[in-house]
Structures are given as structure tokens and as C-alpha cells.
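Sample pair:
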Amino acid sequence: MNKLLWVFISIICIVAMFFAGSDSEYFSSRVFFSSSLIQAFSIYNIFSRGNEPYSLEKMFYLFSLFFFGVAPLLQSFDNSNFWYYRPLLEEEYFFMNILVIIIITLYKIVYFFFRRTIQRSKAEKKLNSFKVPDKITFINSLLLIILSLLAFVIVFAFNNFNIVPMLVRGGEIVADALSDVKADESPTKWLIVNNFVRPISIMCFLYYAVSKEKNILILVILGILALITCFPSAVPRFAAAAMYIPVVLVLFPLVRKKNVFSLIFVGSLLIVFPFLNIFRNFDDTNSKEFKLDFKMFTEQHFDSYQNFALLVSNEIITYGGQLLGVFLFWVPRSVWPEKPLGTGAFTAEKLNFFFSNVAANYFAEGYVNFGYLGIILFLIFLAYVTALIDKIYWESERKVTGDFFSVLYTISLGFLFFILRGDMLSSVAYLFGFLFAAVFVYKLTTLKINNEY
């Protein structure tokens, strides 16, 4: 069944791409066939390992399918030009496709090697000890509600006690609502609130949701608090994915069945993400325009491939300078004025883009730090970490109920996608904020409190 599924989806995808671009004056046979190979190889790996319905390896190939396969091919047909003074040349698309084919093939080989040979680390026992009691006490349930409510109040206060920015991310309405706040609050405080405080409400909900015996009223209260504190359209889309992928996997056992998660993820990227994009620039003029735009693959949201290509074409290498900023992401810029910009902003500055909030994918990070050697080093590190975590999670008896490590693992699925898209400075900051929030909630609510409830 897996074999038939990946073949069928590959054929549908490739045929759709062919008809989408066959009439384009920019159609290139070698770009089309190399992109088709990327798509087919990615789809094969998405629907392999049927006994593992979701994994970090599958997230890598889901990213590869859309950001290295589908989007660049459609952009080549459309001759898309985002931030640079010219579109990519046909030979640049072809060169980058060959480079991507090498990357995704090497990842598979190195991942397979580590998955077969790696010894599960000493951390495995500690990770598997993240257990949630079958029945959470009244006191701890109350603590979860208080923590979640406190997170909501803090985020609400930082949004000028205005509900609109809690529901919508961008646009004129939000700008007006926050006009006084952003002038007063430091970026560091905003990072702490958005990356650590905000996710606490989701973590409280997930902690309670994975317990075996649940009180529906408490679950609903925690769910409502989590939803209004972390409303999907009010946070970056990939942060929303990191928040709600665990919720979907925990609440709906069907999603944990063979291939269902991958199919839903593909559908979400084709339908849900375009819908959420409406709220990035929400104002009175477009508030009623709720149509989905499937041309999003030729728009700036998928600029990651082109920015990678431009870094390679212009041979921009910092010899580790960008990586230093990632390692020291927690140091405020007020303390370290020379702190490196995120690689997206750095790329924009170097190439004189007219916009600086651009994406630089994970392998672009490798190249900008150490050239082609950096791509290989970053690839090996990624394959090692994903193979290790997948092995720890899937090669031991795993039940979502009562297992908070399952929550941590499902959080990592969305964040891997976020990190792969880039840039690393912002995505790593988000990742550590979420993980700290998760561990904070777990440690606090598992404290042994003597009570008679």
C-alpha cells in the first residue's frame, strides 16, 4: 500500500507541475526533471516507514517536497523575483536542484547509517521518565489553570489589553492597537513573553490532555485558555504548527495511524497556511476577502530556496560568524551591539534587498558559515540528531497517554520544519522558549504536594 501510495502521489504531483508550466516561456526540461526527482524522492520517504506514522525524518522530506521541489519549480515557470534585482537564471535553478538532490540523498544515507548504528544515549532513560500521573490531583489541576490564566493575562497586558492582537497577527488594525506598546517595551521582553510565557498555556493543556483520567470541564477550561492565548492566526505560521501539531496528535488517535499525519500535513500546507496568511495583513480593506490563493508557492513566503541560491551564486561566506549568533541567541543586542543579524537579514543586507525579513534555510546557514563544507557538516549534525531522537522515540514501547516525552517529541516535529525553513537565529530562540515552557510546566506540576483532595 505504501508503495502504491507514494507512486500515485508522485505521478499526480509531477503531472500537475508539468501542466502548470508547460505553456510557460520559461519552461526548462532539465529544471523540470531535476525538480520532479526531488519531489518523487521526497514523497517516497514521506510514505516509507509505515510503522512510524510521523517522525523527524518525515518532516525533513515534507520540507524538501514543498521548499525544494514544488515551490522552486513553480517559481521558475513564473520567473518569480522576490527581493533581488533579477530572477534566478535557468542555470542557477538547475545547479541548485542538483545540489538539493545531493543533499537529500546524503541525508538519507547518513540518517540510515546513524539509525542502524547509533547507541541510544544515556539521556533516553531520563527522557522516558517524563511521565504524567494517570489521575492529576485537584491541587495540580488548579495549578495548571492558574498557570495558563497567568500566561493569558501577561500576553494580554503586553498587547495593550486589546483582544485584536491576540487574534490577528498583522495589519493596520494591529499596528494601531500596539502603537503605544512597542515604543515602550524592549525587544527582549517581547521575546520572553512570546517565546516562553505564551506557550505555557499550550503546555498546561497538553500536560492535562495526556493524563489517563481527565475531567472534561478542566480540559475545556485549559483548552479555551490555550486557544485564546495562542490563537493560530496571531502567531507566526510555523510557530502555530509547532504549537498545534502536538495538540492534534494527542487529541486525535486517528492522526497517529499510518500515513494520516503526512496526508493531513500536506493538506494543511495547501489549504490552512494560505488561509492563515490572510491574517498577516488584516485591515478594513481586505477583512472580507477570505479566498485561498494557491499561487503562494510563487510568492515571498517560499523565498528560502532563492535566497539559498543567491548566497551560493555570490559566494557569501562568514567562516562561522553567523553560527556564533545562533549559539549566543540569548544575549540581548543591547549588551552585544555587534551581535550577528539573523542569516535572512544578513543576506538582505549583503545583497541590498529592499526588505530584510527574509528566510534563509538550514543548508543556506551551513553554506554561509563554512561554504560547501558547512552544508556537509550541518547535514551530518541534522541526520545524527534526527536519527537519535527518532530511535529513542520509536524503538521503545510508546504510548501517548501518560507520556510527556511524546509531547516534547511532537513539539520538535513542527520546530524541525521551522528550523529547516530558517533562519536559525529566530527558530532556535523559539525552540528553546517552547522547551523551557514545557519543562517548566512539567516540573512545577509534578511536584509532590500533600493534599487530601
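Residues 171-178, 449-453 have pLDDT under 50 and may be disordered.
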